[in-house]
Amino acid sequence: MSKDRKADTQSDTYGGKEIKPDQQQRLPHHMEMELPHELSINPLFAREGESTIPRLHLADGGMLPETAYQIVHDEITLDGNARLNLATFVSTWMEPAAERLYAQSFDKNMIDKDEYPQTAQIEERCVRILADLWHSPEPLKTMGVSTTGSSEACMLGGLALKRRWQNAREKEGKPVDLPNIVFSSAVQVVWEKFANYWEVEPRYVKVTPEHPQLNPEGVLAAVDENTIGVVAILGETYTGLYEPIAAIAKALDELQEKSGLNIPMHVDAASGGFIAPFLQPDLVWDFQLPRVKSINVSGHKYGLVYPGLGWIIWREAKDLPEELIFRVSYLGGNMPTFALNFSRPGAQVLLQYYNYLRLGKEGYYEVQKASQNVALFLSKEIQNMGPFELLSDGSDIPVFAWRLRDDATSHWTLFDLSRQMRVFGWQVPAYPLPPDMETVTIMRVVVRNGFSMDLAHLFLVNLKQAVAFLDTLDAPMPHDTKYDNGFHH
């Protein structure tokens, strides 16, 4: 082991307990609870009686606004730099004019459509724009809604699938107690939640080295008369790859011709819904396929809006069962609502419309193409480094992933590399693939607007420095478990 690494293994203590080196970046919850129960206050802002405040319960009195600001501001300086967070798909940068609009509209409640009629009108325009972008046959009439993110949008899409299936079965006098839904084992966790929360059997088409994505053969083997729908992903979380949506739709078309089973599809386009229309305009994945009944997207991902916005659009109005829409008399108006949340921010909807006005189709193309160019550059350079093997290169959405070659080293893993990159401030996730491929660990980089080519060169320099350091080790890097790196996606 290198001398530098030996020095790094010196343990610290906290509250009389030893903290191992790989635990020092973030204290476990039980150690957080051992922090002093009082917070000290910077004397610059303190007034009489404000030398300390309780950490875990409300103080009897208040404090100066500057004091409260200082306490919160000081603590969040320990967070990572959002611009260097290559794990998240969520937007971490908007231009100053958008931030000014955000600051002027963060008090708007999206549910108060009678109080904020123009904000409601702008939401409606955004729905029409997306419906048109995704080739709805009736973009001016179909149903759609903004949500707090793609997770809520997925829940709404799944509920509509379940209710449509129930209605059709009841008309035929058939039981409705055993619904199932089909998706790949690489699906985002929200679909597991949907199946659990709404009592639908999840049927996973397992990804394997031979079939790393959802495939038509696997879908046909999983569906039956109780299948409420098939969910396909336009931009997998693990690798960024598109699932073969048109091929799956064709297989289901052929199944209907043979058996009469009419199984709809929902496309989870959380990331790809704002990429494919601009970078791959000839790709057929959306409402051009009649079997695709609903699509969700994250406005706060490649829609280029700050966190807190998703969208779901149905192909035609009839694809959203009317009984799921509530007519609510609220704040002086009568409005239809279909959502899991009630009150929620309206500012992000305005930011989405701002982007539509600001960029247009050409602007969205330029922004997404710049991100893709960075992804293609970095993936090629990483492939050429030697110890790595690409699983994707950023040709679909600007996301790429790689694994460590089996013969590369026995002294360090991608989890070690992930931790080493944090030394430079970069947050690059390492994690195992889904079940049946969980022995394969990968790293992934999400290139977003704001991650410039200049930053990409700096990232590459730091990556090479991290690998060079790890290569000096003459024994495996010590740590407790490969699951202690704290990454969630």
UniProtKB/TrEMBL annotation:
Keyword vocabulary terms for this entry: Decarboxylase, Lyase, Pyridoxal phosphate
GO cellular component: cytosol
Pfam hit, one: Pyridoxal_deC
One record GO biological process: L-glutamate catabolic process
Enzymatic reactions: L-glutamate + H(+) = 4-aminobutanoate + CO2
Chain residue ranges for the region called Disordered: 1-25
Residues recorded with modification N6-(pyridoxal phosphate)lysine: 301
Organism: Rossellomorea marisflavi
Any one GO molecular function term: aromatic-L-amino-acid decarboxylase activity
Coiled coil: none
Protein name in UniProt: Glutamate decarboxylase
